[in-house]
Amino acid sequence: MRFPHGPLRQLVSAVFAANGSEQVEADLIGNHLVEANLAGHDSHGVIRTPIYIQWLKDGDVLANRRLQITHEMDSLALVDGQQGYGQSIGRQVVELGLEKCRRHGAAVVAVKNSGHLGRIGHWAELAADAGCVSLHFVNTSGKGMFVVPAGGVEPRLSVNPVTIGVPVEGRSHVVLDIAAAAAAEGKLKVARNAGNLVPDNWILDAEGQPTNDPNAFYGPPMGAILPIAGHKGYGLSFMVELLAGALTGNGCSQKGKTRLEQGMLSIFVDPSQLPMQDFFGPDAARYIDFVKSCRPATAGNPVLVPGEIEDKRRQDRTENGIELDDKTWQQIVASARECSVPEELIANAVGK
């Protein structure tokens, strides 16, 4: 089934408002989740709605939290997300970072104790909208510890997103939004709900054997996710643990954690305050064109630059709707009805 994005936003926002979020926060969450679906990142989209609500009920995430600044300098801040919804906490981090970046040319914000920060590419896009380059490194302190080190079969790392956003005047933003793991865990949720297998070299079962069945990953007992590119991805993931875990105070992945706590180290740079602003934009545009001029390996499939596939998916899904499997949709409907969201909003979301 395909769902129009506008009514779907309203429905998801209403679910969070009915569960105690102020309307501004509920709208931030609803918009963020639907925007993730529009960009093609279904793993971080509306499938998260019932998961977040369950975390709220369990006390693992808290509504209407504000950043608590624990240490601050002109271009540096250490902040505590107080276990708020990451869709709200992440936006507050970006706003703080951009405010400092405008005044000082660059800024670093380190946040600990945030709820799930969603699609990290969204935060790079917000910074790029403001004309700033940004880098974001994210970990969890242990509940999301699904990834094995190269040569191992026991999880020791989180999925650990790495995101870099670069604005280019007159062009779409260039945004690299990846996990240091072979797959974000949310992609396994999507595959399981849809009854699909996953590609080779993504996951291991509980015995450390390769599998294509997402159910084998979830167990019980739980399996594990492989790093990208073997030892190279493992090395990248390891460094993200140190940057987003140890350097933020959130903590590197460890056993025994029962609540998902995310840390994020965000770096912002304002290119307009560098003495090369007349070079940066034109050279970036030149390089984009140079890379895209490469002869494709398959006729009809041109070379893309980071962020371009999200743009294409966003255009398609904005026009034609967001595709959701029936199980995911029924989970969202159950969450909505449980908190007495009006049936009209549910019906509107499917265009009826």
Describe the secondary structure blueprint for this structure:
Blueprint: E1 2-3, H1 5-18, H2 23-38, H3 49-58, E2 68-73, E3 76-80, H4 86-104, E4 106-114, H5 121-129, E5 133-140, E6 145-147, E7 157-158, E8 161-166, E9 174-179, H6 185-194, E10 203-204, E11 210-211, H7 214-218, E12 224-225, H8 231-246, E13 262-269, H9 277-292, H10 308-320, E14 322-323, H11 326-338, H12 343-349
Parallel strand pairs: 3-4
Antiparallel strand pairs: 1-14, 2-3, 4-13, 5-8, 5-13, 6-7, 8-9, 10-11, 10-12
Helix pairs in contact: 1-2, 1-12
Please sum up the structure shown.
The chain is of the alpha+beta class. The protein contains 12 helices and 14 strands. The protein folds into 2 domains: 91 residues, Hypothetical Oxidoreductase Yiak, Chain: A, domain 1; 174 residues, Ribosomal Protein S8, Chain: A, domain 1.
Question: Whole-number average pLDDT?
Answer: 97
The CATH superfamily of the largest domain bears the name Malate/L-lactate/L-sulpholactate dehydrogenase, NADPH binding domain
How do the helices and strands follow one another from N- to C-terminus? EHHHEEHEHEEEEEHEEHEHEHHEHH
In which range does the helix fraction lie? 40-55%
Low-confidence stretches: none
Please summarize the sheet with the most strands: 7 strands, mixed
